[in-house]
Amino acid sequence: MAIVRLTPQVVLEAGITPSKTACLLANTYLVRNSGRVILHVIKGAGNVAVTVVTPKTIGGAAVADLVVTVIANTDEFIGPFPRDVFNNGSNDITITLATDEVGLTIDALEI
């Protein structure tokens, strides 16, 4: 399992061309989170579960991770992610994937 860093692309008034990073289920993805980051997940055949880890605890109880299922042949925008809930000690969000990686890309966008 590799740790892969995704660098958020700042969305400009004139527009941007997304980088569309191809993803593998075995990898863990890190994104520096300013609180204005949104993930754009594009899925080909088969569904994928995208998990954004929440390292926060309240009263000693863990806050549930955010899990979004992206249906085959669709795309989803996920976020933004409040820093106090989703950021780890390095100010990153952690993303893991489950189910199917066929035709899967993720872009990290900063608005």
Radius of gyration: 14 Å
Outline, from the CA principal axes? globular
Low-confidence stretches: none
For the sheet with most strands, the description reads:
5 strands, mixed
Number of domains: 1
Order of helices and strands: EEEEEEEEEEHEE
Assess the beta-strand content as a share of residues.
over 45%
Secondary-structure content class: mainly beta
Structure write-up:
- The protein has one helix and twelve strands.
- The protein is mainly β.
- The chain has one domain.
- A hairpin with a 2-residue loop joins strand 7 (57-58) and strand 8 (61-62).
- The chain is globular, with a radius of gyration of 14 Å.
- The N and C termini lie far apart (30 Å).
- 23% of the residues are buried.
